[in-house]
Amino acid sequence: MKQDTNEHESGRLRITNVDTLLLSADIGKPLKDATFSVGREQAIVRVFTDEGIVGIGEACQFVAVSAAREIVEKGLKPLLLGEDPFDVERLWQRMYLQSYLYGRSGAAIIAMSGVEMSLWDIMGKALNVPVYKLLGGKCRDKVKAYATGGFEISTEKLTKEFVGYVEKGFRAVKMKIGYDFGTDIERVKAVRGAIGHDIDLMVDGNISYTPQMAIRIGKEIEKYNISWFEEPIPPDDVDGMLKIASSLNIPLAAGENNYTRYGFKDLISRRAVDIIQADVARVGGFLECKKIASMADTYGILCAPHGFGHTVGLVANLHFIVSTPNGIMVEVDQMPDPLRDELLSEPVDVKNGYVDIPTKPGLGVELNEDVLRKYSLK
Questions:
Q1: Would you call 306 a catalytic residue per the annotation?
Q2: Are 295 and 264 in contact (CB under 8 A)?
Q3: N or C: which end of the chain has fewer CB within 10 A?
Q4: Active site residue: 125, 144, 174, 176, which one?
């Protein structure tokens, strides 16, 4: 019978504290896509050890970030104190089983993601290696990045925005649709015409359609060489995704709103999508992302993690994609965000459409203490 024990090897690290920093930056008005309205808020998780090594993680939650703090500090922290951060698989299982009492998706798993990410940061720092080396080593020397934006309704403003992304060196871009049928067709047509045909163009429906509506608009925009159609309907509707997939020649992507490997099982095993978007900062952490990606690889499905609204989470997704054979690219949010621009001492730099792999121990991130104070949400 498997036993849960606190016995450790002599000299191993021990977790002494866990806390959550809530940050909020005013951007004037919320960002609104076809379904959601979000501001710029983040929950940064820190795990402290008896040898002074501090792990940093991000729990990617766009609204009610105080829920992340409540779950981390009241639900998860008691399970971690005194434990060895290297026992990440056992600690993940312990946290997940306890989460049955308050949710196995959404805020509960997002909070776990930030904690688990912090544990990997500790392990990398303790061993003086980047996290990706602990995840299997590198499968590539750099990672392709795609720019996300496209909230504008006006085609004039929209095309100017996307031409700007191409001029910055991006070779792949993603825009929002789902506002109005005729307007969106014109918006997609305008963006494709502005950026040319050698740039990857993805569209994100933000679960705003029915399967029938998604098929209808998909058939209209197929001619514009769309690289993927993201979340046209709620990803829980696997039958609906299959119906869309069988009717369109556009690859389907989903996973931003799926949690743990259990939430991806049917999407993958039934081949309802072509690209899964498991996100280290949302899906449960690195271990879950690796398990999901491995399952997807078995079915010939690619992996491109969600990354909108990230700072620390973007770096975590880089480590994940670098070490994942079927990983293709990472999402780099381009909408106004002071946290993204200011929080990291060394922000992620996109050069000629690619991001270099991290080289420092752990995640390789350091937080700007002045920025933490500036944007602290009490």
A1: yes
A2: yes
A3: N
A4: 176
Q: Residue 301 in 3-state DSSP?
A: coil
116, 204, 288, 333: the catalytic one is 204
User: Which is the catalytic residue, given 58, 87, 161, 256?
Assistant: 256
**Cα pseudo-dihedral 246, 248, 253, 259, rounded to 10:** -40
Task: Tell me the helices (H) and strands (E) count for the chain, helix number first.
Answer: 14, 15
Q: Give the integer Cα–Cα distance in Å for 98 and 225.
A: 46
Mark whether 369 is an active-site residue. no
Query: Is there a catalytic annotation at residue 26?
Result: no
331 in active site? yes
Which CATH number applies to 15-128?
3.30.390.10
Where in the chain are the domains?
15-128, 133-367
Q: Which of the residues 83, 200, 331, 337 is marked catalytic? A: 331
What tens digit of pLDDT does each residue of 37-81 get?
888 899 999 999 999 999 999 998 777 788 999 999 999 999 999
CATH 3.20.20.120 fits 133-367, yes or no: yes
